[in-house]
Amino acid sequence: MVRNIAHTLGYRAVSSLHLCPGCARLGRLRPADRGSLELGQRRCSCGFTSSASPTSPGPEAETQEKKKPLKKWTSLSIGEDNSCGITTKQTLWCWGYNSNGELGIGNTKSKYKPVQVKGGGKWLQVSAQDETTCGIKKDGSLWCWGYNAYYAVGDGTDKNRTKPTRVGTAKNWKSISVSFHGCGIKKDNSLWCWGYNNIGQLGTGDYTTAPTPVQVQAGRTWTSVQAGSSSTCALAVNLTDSKKRDLLCWGYGGRGQLGQGTTANSLNPVQVAGNWKSISGANSTVCGVRSDGSGWCWGKTPPGRQEPRHRSRCCPR
Q1: Which of 39, 55, 121, 248 has the most crowded Cβ, counting Cβ within 10 A?
Q2: Domain segments of the chain: what residues?
């Protein structure tokens, strides 16, 4: 299952993507219709009751059920209003809202169905969030496009880009995460961030916005990064035990998303207690899996969770 705070799509056997165009504007689910499609479930109904049982699908959903998937997918990235996926042939396709060029197709026309991103080449990873998209090609080069008023594209300008734009000249990028700012890890395990920095989300110890990538805490061995709207969390090898992974977060903490038990902000990375295996998040919500396999979440309760007033949690629980 692939899910995001804003919309959810069924993902079958990590290969066949079944969209629900009849249930949503531009191929995404309406907030009132959120639910989950379990791994392997092909139903395209988008209406759910409070108990998470599917309502009967409409005629368009039934038609979609009979169609065979057109492409085989290896990975997906689900943004607020748009989504992108990489096929088994390593081609990159995007769909959804496109007012700022976040689909990377050379214009600002929104699309209900997947359209291939401009520029060609083979792609290894993609990150789509907050109207900006970034991807890493097979040669290790980094490309970004879409909304760029806060320098999230990382090309040194604040001009929106409707097709992939090269970020620097390096060809050693291995992972990427983008929001209103971007962060990426290179093959030497160094961490780099760029974009808006009004509240310390770049982790550089100051409020200086970076139109191009700047290094974060040189000397640490970083393994994973997740950029939120105004905060960032990342995993790094423990300084004394290489088998352990530290989770560090920085930037805006007003929803408790830094995992410190407070709502304080931080200009520098601060460690979240525990030994961690993986992290994921969007906007002001962070979730992680510890080395013992237990799952933990903190920050703002995502919409759709049946908790009063979408309350916030200041530390993992």
Answers
A1: 248
A2: 1-70
Q: Which residues pair with 83 in a beta bridge?
A: 78, 95
Measured CA to CA, the distance from residue 86 to residue 210 in angstroms comes to 29
Evaluate if residue 307 carries a pLDDT over 50. no
| Residue tagged 């009004």 (tokens) | 198
Q: Look at the block and give the residue holding tokens 């961030």.
A: 193
Query: What's the rounded Cα separation, in Å, for the pair 293 and 280?
Result: 14
Q: Give the C-alpha separation, 205 to 107, whole Å.
A: 37
SS (H, E, C) 191-218: EEEEECCCCCCCCCCCCCCEEEEEEECC
pTM of the model: 0.79
| Tens-place pLDDT, residues 265-295 | 999 999 999 999 999 987 789 999 999 999 9
CB 268 within 8 A of CB 253: no
pLDDT tens across 185-240, in order?
999 999 999 999 999 999 999 999 999 999 999 999 999 999 999 999 999 999 99
pLDDT band at 56 (very low <50, low <70, confident <90, very high): very low
For residue 266, with 0-12 CB atoms within 10 Å meaning exposed, 13-18 middle and 19 or more buried, which class applies?
buried
- Put the strands of the sheet holding 92-96 in their side by side order: 73-78, 82-87, 92-96, 111-116
